[in-house]
Structure formats: C-alpha cells, structure tokens
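Issue: copy button drops trailing tokens. Both records pasted manually instead:
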Amino acid sequence: MSGGAPAGGGGRAKSGKPRVGTGGKGRKRLEGRGPTPPAHMRPGHPAQRRAEAAARATTAGGGTRRAGRPGPGDEARNPAGGGPGPGSGGRSAAKIPADRRGAGDAAEVVAGRNAVLEALRAGVPAAALYAGPRRDADDRVRAAVDLAAAAGIPMIETGRAELDRLTGGSVHQGLALKVRPYDYAAAEDLTQRARAAGAPALIVALDGVTDPRNLGAVARSVAAFGGHGMLVPARRSARVTAGAWKASAGALARVPVAQVPNLARALAAYQQEGLFVAGLDADGTAPVADLAIADAPLVLVVGSEGRGLSRLVAERCDVLARIPMAADTESLNAGVAAGIALYAVAAARAAPSRS
C-alpha cells in the first residue's frame, strides 16, 4: 500500500498539508437546491408578479386560474400595461385595439393629437391629460392643453416611455387623455326619472349594437325627442367610451345609460311596472308611425343592423313595429332607426287626438 493519502479522498495531501475540502460542512450540504424554476415561479421576479396580477384579475372577474401560472392568452393581455407579458419570449406586447381600450370598467386612454383634441372639444369627462416634451411645437397640443385647463383637467408632463405604456404602444404623438370610467345607472333609475318629469316613460334599449358611435348617436336622438334614458346589456354590446361621447355631441351628459346583465329579463321587469315594449323589426306588424301604444309608457328596442333583434328579446316584445323603406334597402343603421322611431313616437304623443 502507498503511504500517501488515497487518491480522491482522505484528510491530507501527499505533501502532508491538509487537503482543501468542504470546510467541515459535508457533501450533503453542497448538493444544491435543484434546477432553477421558471421566471413566473421565482418569488420577486417581474414575471412572477405579472402572473400573480393576471391571476388576481381573472379570479375577480369570475374565472379561475392557478396562482403563479400564466393562462391562455396572457401573451397578448400584457397585465403590466407595458412590456411583454408572461410567455411572450421577450417580444413586445400586442397593441391594444382602439375600440377595446376602455371597454371595461377601467379608465379609457385616448391617444393622438387629433383624437385628444376632438375628445376635449366634445366635453368627454377626463381624469388627466398626459403631454410629452416639446408640446409647444404644435397648435393642436397647445389647444388641447388650453381646453384641459379650462375644464379643470390636470395636465401631467411625462416621457415617451410612460406614454407608450399608457397607450399600449399605439401612436400617441406625445399626447394622451385618460377618460373617466362611465358611471352607469340602474334600470329603475330611468323609470324614476320619467315619474319625476311627470311624463310617460320613453326608454331606448339596444340589442346587439356593438359600435360605440351608434350608442352615441342614439343618445343624441333620445335627448332630442324627450327620452328618459337608454338600456344596454353588459355583454356583447357597445359601452360608453370616448367615441360614444363624441358621437353624442354632449347628449350623454343629459341622457343616463343603464347597464343590465340580461336584457330580456330587464324588459320583463319593465313590463311588470306597466311599460310596453316595442321592438323595431323589418317584418313588424305595424308601421312605427301607427304605433297604438306610442302614448303609453314605452321601451323601444333597437337591434343590430345586420342581425336585428335576438330571438329572446323579440319574443319579449309586446309588438314588433317596422320602418317603411324602399324594397331595395336591406336595413338601417341603428342610430338612424332609433331617430326615426323616436320622432314617430314624439309626434304621436304631441298629436291633439292623443292629448
């Protein structure tokens, strides 16, 4: 046997000096903790915080998702509001479509000099105006700043990176406006408003109308012809956005909009209160100008331009009325149809024979 220490072991080297070893901690103490977990599972990592925020938001909205794990579609959801979301592989997040921003209960962001200026001129209620550097170089920016100051809207100076984050990467031209979330009324508020005015209720309900500009145009007609409000379903329907405010020409400041979970059930509740429900349909039994219930408390239901009224809503109506049109005309825009029907109802109510 050799007199030296065994190769690969022992406490001393051949020279007799102590062998460099573990410092007394032992082999098991140096085995490590296994492979590094993914980014979205490492505590404190930005990806893990984004995943937890997305999970909380989904749970609050009625969905379920395992905490700390990204779900389907997270790549485009961009829960941080800025950079890439979990699973994006470092790519920039998809831009938020203009008609989707502000579609929920969160504040909407209007981006671009022309869009911001038009929104401020329309009196859209806003929380803040964000402006980047060198804003004095454009007349539209100066006009927007002046309008915001006159309306008492605070202006916040910020950099390009913050503007990119606020607008979801869309073209903002150094200017963005944060619009306040709309405060929807309850369905019963509309009938109470009619009672307070001492007039038969006149309410317009939208069934499947998804363009906010149509919602704004209908609100303008409701205000013009003495209506008491609008009713929209919470799902698959246009909401009150900056586009709706601009199309209404300020009418949304005077016409309340109620949002309900189920339109057919809301119409049934109105019928129990004594209101009649008339739906606009191309195959209606009577012209809208000859509507016998025009002077009674009334809900006018307007469907989408392409599909018309849904089956359940059509079955709930007391009567289906039509707008006479030329044979080669398929349908009318929802805003135009509502304006014609409201005019016919207002004319019938003002007729001497009905007073």
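Record 2 (pasted manually too):
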Amino acid sequence: MRDFGENSVGLVQRQYYTFAENDPMVLDSGETLGPITLAYETYGELNAARSNAILILHALSGDAHAAGYHSPDDKHPGWWDECIGPGKAFDTRKYFVICSNVIGGCQGSTGPSSINPATGRPYGLSFPVVTIGDMVRAQRHLIDHLGIERLLAVAGGSMGGMQALQWAVSYPQRVLAALPLATTARHSPMLIAFSEVGRQAIYADPNWNHGDYYDGPRPNAGLALARMIGHITYLSEQSMHQKFGRRLQGRERYGYDFDTEFAVEGYLKHKGNQFTNRFDANSYLYVTKALDYFDLTHSHGSLQAAFANSAHIMYLVVSFTSDWLYPTYHSKELVSALLAVGADVTYCDLKSTWGHDAFLLEVDTMTALISDFLDRVVREHKIELQAAQASSVVVAPETSLARQPVRAVQVVPG
C-alpha cells in the first residue's frame, strides 16, 4: 500500500447526493431544475455536536476533489491538498471538511452534460442558466442532508470566494466565519470581456454545434483556446518573466515561422489541451456566465446593505499585490462594506509575484493565516475541538457574538 505521508488525508472517495426529484429547485432566473445531483467529498470526521464543519468552495475549473487521492496510483492529489489535511491550514484532525462540485459543472454534479430525464439525452443548452446564488442554494441542500445546522466556516478563492460571500449574504445564521480569498463582490466590465472572449472561442469551434456535440467530436480547439485566454489572467507579468522570460522551446534561435517557439507558447498550449481532458465546453459557458452575473449589490442596492444581516460573521479577506484579475481594490471594497456594518474583519494584502493563482501557491503564508484565523473563530465562539480520533467532542455553550477589534490592513511578504 502506498504511503501518502502523515500530513495527507490519503485515499478518498467521491460521494453523491441527489435531491429535488419531486420538488424542483427554483433558480434565480425563475426556471426550475430537478432532480439535482451534487458530487462531493469529505475529509476528517464530524464531531458529536456537528460544530466543526468547514465547506470548501472551488474556483471555475475546480471540482469536489480538493484533497487526497482517489487511488494508490494517482499521480496528483486534490486541487487544494497542500492546505487540507492533518496539520495543514484546514486541519482534518480538528475539522470536518466538505467540498462539492457546483451545479452547472461537469465533475459529477448536474450540468449541461448530464442526462435530462425528460429526454434521455444530455441537456446541452436546454440546461437552465445558473448563478452563484443557485450554486450556493444547492450546497445548502447538501449541508442539510449531512445534518449540519451551522458551518464553522465557508472558504474559497476566486469563484470559491464569491460562493463564500454568497453564503454569508444568503444564509448568515448558518455560518460562523467566511474566508473569501482573491475574489470580488461583482465582475467588472474587463472581467466580463475576458469571459466573453473565452465563450466566443468555443462558439467559433465548428464542433460546438450549438451545444449539441455529445454524440460526436468535441469542440476541444475552442475550449483549449478559452482556457489559454483564461490562464493568462491567472498569472502576472512578473511570474511570466520568472517562469519563461523570452526563452525558446526546443531550439536555439528563432525559426521565423509560426511553430511554437517561445516557452510561454508551449506552456499555454499544454494547459489548454490538458484542460479538454477533464472539462466540458458547455460547462465552461455556464460557469463563466455565473461569474459574470455575480453582483452582491443586485437587489440590495449597495454592498453595505447586502451585508446588513451578516455582521456577526467573522471574516478573513485576502488579496494579493500582483493579482490583476481581482486586484486589491476589489477586496478593499468588501472590507469597507463589512466595516460599515460593524463586522469583525481580518484583512491581508499579501505581497506575491504569483498573480491570481497566489491563493493556491503561497502555501506557507496562507497556512499561517488560515490556521490562526480558524483558531480564533473556535476560541471566540468557545467551541471545544478535539482530535478526530477522540471518542467524543464536547461543544461549550456559545456566547454572544461580541464585536472584536478590526485587524489592520496588512501587506505581508509572500
């Protein structure tokens, strides 16, 4: 048997929960969807009081497989494995960690590639448009199914951070803490523009066939191009200089042709082609639309009004100095609105050269920040946590959610 190491959650298994068979879920668009299946994974153990659950929320291309390995032969662990496990940021000796694939996705949850029970064929573009709010609404059903009344924390980066914010706004009494990382309260026009260029790349692929391609060749060229465009936004100019510079790939001098010459070209092609092996083009359309529709001020009028009922939640907001996809000012806007309603906010603007992907790559700094913050949440809510191996866990009665001094804005070396 393979030794995964003492800090790994080891072998894990994807699980499925199906609901809304007889009572379809109403979506933000007014349409309904059902039945709905959510693919999810869990790590650690739920304590006796069901008070140690943390919901991890994935980014655009993520899935339910956040940590561990599906088989002894797996070469790569889950997408946030460096932060989930014994002794890591989300310490599975203390916490019961949950991660589910979003609706509209293509990694086990109901999405456009799923079979429509009414037709016996994949939904394709007949799948209803979903929003970040719909994704969170479906997750709430999963949390109900697991018998968890209130989550210790919701956490995620990028689109995962949007879901964490939506949880705080939609279900404030069911969350003690929220960790929105490298994210925003709403997509800017520039971000919508990047999303649309990616979608147009898929539309232009002759194999897309208006979304009805499941019985034939897939629109992999369009999807790969969309991923290449998106991936550029996850990096920074400095990180691209460090990783690639103007280095040539497999040759010593310019070929003066249109072959792949520069190392950065080869890298983007590899990332794009690799993406087509695990993602569905229609899901890319749906999930990027959900990102573009996301706007916490919609129907509230302002961010401050959106957070009015979630001021008791403790927040850890993190941005990165080189993130030009969701620049620092996006997080500062969040912090200002949270402070205006009297929320307990810890905010850090981390110095990093890794761009938007820094929330996945600055492991040591993120581990220290998240561990300390979660320890404070547990301490201030007087939740007694014991190791998962313990026979029982006792949770002390909660005190009132007293306001704590606001943590100063910081720039922390990455």
